[in-house]
């Protein structure tokens, strides 16, 4: 069935479902190794100069071989978050970014 030009079209989808700026938690997982937490927090600080390291949450895997690091950054744009995810994902110590 063809729609006529007078048929209302659905509103264009917003570019992002996040309202900026906002606090945005990111979970990063990697092997439990010296320097891992520092590497993750350093990257977070590159993208959020006001990053507060006291908000970092750590969680070890059941066997203690892996570490989950949750950093909460102030997200200012989708581009900032995309680049932050890319930078974290390509770090050699990082296994997964959620």
Describe the structure.
The structure is a single chain. This protein is α+β, with helices and mostly antiparallel strands and about 100 residues long. It has one domain: ACT domain (Alpha-Beta Plaits, 2-Layer Sandwich). Helix content is about 25%, strand content about 30%. The chain has helices spanning about 35-45, 80-90, and strands at about 20-30, 55-60, 65-75, 95. Strands 2-3-1-4 form a 4-stranded antiparallel sheet, with helices on one face. α1 runs antiparallel to α2. The longest helix has 12 residues, at about 35-45. It is elongated, with a radius of gyration of 18 Å. It starts with about 20 loop residues before the first strand and ends with a strand. The model is unreliable at about 10-15 (pLDDT under 50).
Coarse structural class? alpha+beta
Our count of helices gives: 2
Average predicted confidence as pLDDT: 89
The residue fraction in helices comes out at 10-25%
Q: Which regions contain 5 or more consecutive residues with pLDDT less than 50?
A: 9-13
| Oligomeric state of shown chains | single chain
Sheet with the most strands, sense and barrel status: 4 strands, antiparallel
Tell me the series of helices and strands, N- to C-terminal. EHEEHE
CATH architecture: 2-Layer Sandwich
3D shape: elongated
Strand order of the largest sheet: 2-3-1-4
Question: In the CATH scheme, what's the topology name?
Answer: Alpha-Beta Plaits
Distance between the termini: 42 Å
- How would you name the CATH homologous superfamily? ACT domain
The tally of domains stands at 1
* Name of the level-1 CATH class: Alpha Beta
